[in-house]
Every structure is written in C-alpha cells, then in structure tokens.
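Chapter summary example: a protein plus iron/sulfur cluster.
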Amino acid sequence: MAFWTKLEAWYNDYGRTLPWRGIDNPYYIWLSEIILQQTRIEQGRDYYLRFIEAFPTVADLAAASEEQVLRLWQGLGYYSRARNLRAAAQYIMDECGGRFPDTYDGLLRLKGVGRYTAAAIASFAYRLPHPVIDGNVYRFISRLRGIATPIATDSAYREFEALLTQLIDRERPDRFNAALMDFGALQCRPQPDCTACPFADECEARRTGRVDMLPVKAPKAKPKDRWFYYFDLRWRKEGVRYGRMHRRTGNDIWKGLFEFGLMESDHRLEGDELQNEVWRFLDITYSCQEAGYTITDEYLHQLTHRTIHARFIQAELPEEPVSHPADGMIMTDRQMNSVPVPRLIDKYLQTL
Ligand code: SF4
C-alpha cells in the first residue's frame, strides 16, 4: 500500500484534535507553531489560547508593547521567540501592508521563522506542498527508511525534505503534514509499540533491530554553569514597600525581562568569600553597608544550555539606597508581580 494511503488511514482513526488544526488563518497557525517550539502541547495550548484572546489579529500584536508580550509569554522560556513574534508582526504591518506573507520564501523573511515554521504555515494555511520536519518526523522517517544521518543538521534536513517532497499529498499537504507529525508523536514514539504499527512490515529499523538506535542524534554540549547573586533590597516610604528591578539588556539570556540587581560570579561563592563579595557589591553598587541581610539557599534553574545557580540577598533598608549606575525601576511589590520576569525570579517571588 502507498505510504500516504496507510498513513491517512491511521490518521483518520488516531489524529489529534488541536485548537490550531483545521483552520487556515496564517496568523493563528504562526502563533501556534512559534509557541510549540521547545514546548509541550499541553502547556502550549493554554498559551496559544491566551495569545489569540489578547491579540486576536496581527495588528493587535504589532501594537502591543514588548512588556505586554513578554508578560504573556512568561514561563515559556526562550524569550527571543516572543520578541521575534512582535517584531515580525510589526514587519507585516509596516512592510507588507498588514497582509500575512503567503509564499514559503515570504514567510522565511519573518523574524524567528525558519524552514520548519515556514513549511507549517505554507502547508496548513495555504496548502502549499512543503513537508514539515520536526523531531517526531525525523524519528519516524529515519526508522522507517533506516536513515542513520545525524538529525537536526543541515544535510539531514535537506535529505529528509527531498524524500518527503516526493511523498507529500499535493492536494492536501495540510493533512499529510498533520498526520506525519501525529504519527511520530503518538505511534512511533521513543519507545514504540511496533506490533500495533501499520508500517511494521516495511520498517527498516524494525527489520534490522535498530529501533532503539534511530534516529542518530548529534552529541549534546554539556550545559554551562552560571552563578547568580541577586540583591532583593526593600525599603518603605509612607507605608508602601518598594524595591528596585532592572531590565536585562545585551546579547544574553532573558533579554528584556526584569530582575533584581545582579552580581554574577564565574564560580560558586561560599563562606567568607560570599560575605565579602556581597558586602563589596552593596557598598559599590548601592553605597550601602547594610549589615542586616540574609542569603537564601541556592535556587537551581535549568535552561537548555545553561544551569543557573541563584541565591538571593535580602535586606530591609531604612531608606531607598543610592544606585550606581542610577538605572533600574523602583517598584512596589505589586508592580514586581506584573512586569515580565524570568521564571527563576517568578519562583522566588512566589516563595516570599
Ligand atoms: S514499526 Fe516501530 S519503529 Fe517502525 S515505524 Fe512503526 S512504530 Fe516506528
């Protein structure tokens, strides 16, 4: 039986019902695809629904402030995705007359849109025959055909794209792609039940006993450790409690999000060394030789390429400290809970 006939029969029985399936609104499809990168479907679904409610059109998203978008994105990680969404929405409004690009190449010009996302929007919104290739598709196809090229490399992408371009249903590329992704996610899982698979009699990995060995993955780099020491200094004025937060800038994690004054070290600070560095930072940055501070235990926060070890230095000051440089924003407790912050800071704030 032809590949698509078999796959479609399976999809008719087991395909997933998702809020962004069966629609042809390119803006909604784009939002869903960007949210779902590096995110589980269950978690992504809530964010998707919140985004389309807050920004029902691309014009609404383009008009939103970066802070509004980041706040809504909070908890999803990879914040550059949110900044790129807003930048691309503004590009669509300013450069494309508010019209969503309707070609594969036009889609690739949107900030944050790569080959996978362009193929997804092109096929789901415009029924253009571009195959989507995500981790699930790599797994299924590499096993089915016994392909040992390390995945997620440029040459693997071209190899799988050429193969799937031959197989794709040119009339219904949207259905084909949805079925392909679902099959990889639900049937050809990391530990699959091959006895229930409609491709069992032609699967190369099964025939050669290599199901556990495919797909071949390029070795991952070990995450790098970083040690963050945050200064959560508070004071009261006319009965209201204040603190100071700073917006992260530069080409680093969490750009655009807010955090407390930060001292970063290239190793773990402990004992006298920690006390001395804290005192020095308080003196130099805040002109404040506050003796009554406490230091929390370590908060461990895992990112894909970084392990953050964070401790918070807490102090109640008699008055607002002088800050050098005089940047940052003075906020009430309530304001701290309404600006976009990294999940690590949010976790900390929730424990207070
Ligand atoms: S037989 Fe097993 S490994 Fe092969 S495609 Fe089916 S589920 Fe995947």
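Key point: Residues 116 and 145 are 21 Å apart (CA to CA).
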